[in-house]
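Example 3.2
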Amino acid sequence: MENAEVASRSKSTYVRNVVGAALGMAVGFAAIFIATNGVFIPSIVRDFHWGRAQASQSYSASMLGLALVSPLVGVLMDRFGVKRVVFVSALAFAIAMACMAFQTGNTVSWIALSLLIGMAGAATSVLGYLTILPQWFDRRLGLAIGLAMVGLGSGTVVMPALSAYLITQVGWRHAYQVLAAISLAGALVAFLLLREKPGIQRKLRRHTGSGTSLAGVGPVRRRALKVFLIFAGALCASTAVLSLVPHLPALLMDRGFSASEAARCASLVGLGILIGRLTSGLLVDRIHAPLVACMYFASGAIGFVLLRQIESYEGALLASVLVGLAIGAEGDLLSYLTRAYLGMEKFGLFYGIVFSGYSLGAVFGPMATGHYFDATRSYVLPMQIAPILLLAACLFLLSLGRYSKPGTHGSGSLNGVAVASK
């Protein structure tokens, strides 16, 4: 009877963590600020008499802020625990987000506050919430990550629609404040749901201090190489797949598609992201993760090739889904790859570093594509480069070789730190 109660509590903890992570990401930085960014632009352009490029600088500035602080956030999570850092980040993010309502049209303050929002909200993204799952899951880590990422996907669908409604009802300034309140309330619920592995920070610090390598990856140089390969793969892939997403509706309208058709294609990118997140999580529990990454990156490359050639609406829909699959899979894989190749020792630091590669790609890709289009009035070269970058990402990840510890798919331990083989 006692064993049954313990088992029940254990299962409940797994469920709570997945649900808590899903909820936290659904109301975190990516869903609340990034996904809604384009919804606010028309109102801001009208009020400040700006151009669209000027208004959209908030996206690039916030992603740059996210990239800059990601390694530091990782260090803080290793030192003070994930939950504390995530909640402080959620509070700072909500305050910074609410301050968007007080913007006066000064470009410097607009960019500075957006940069601060990205820095403050870093731990409310996958960087924070997907750091807690590897503490509990081993054999089914991919599935747990995939299910949690569905929460993020749902948030990126719901929040833009909610933002549009709020803007029409209360104006864009108050809309930012309402979204900030929703984000903080959701983060509080997520905080109450999440559980960290008892004593894991102390155990990891003790092993590190005694010179024991929890990850079993050998010399420092070898570990640094693996961090670089994952970072480079993330940078190349995100630069490629995120380069055209903000420009997709305009690209399709230039091809003669109607505004409604272009909007449907853009929404199918979101559907592809959702499918990619769930299915890639399922697959990495059974198939070598770099191979799974190559499968999804290949789908993205095919999507870009189709976008260059298609003239039919159905072809545009298919290409949009294929690109979305690659975006969704990359988000899942970074946490898994970090755990599989680097273990739990200094997991936050290493995950922060590789996640900054993903964030930098989200800055450089769309920005470079926009500047190229302004100069040439064409998207041809970015669509030619994207498949090449995805191929490079595949080569980087395949170079990782075998997992750095035996039994990643169900060993039941984190290199000396006991976990349930869930």
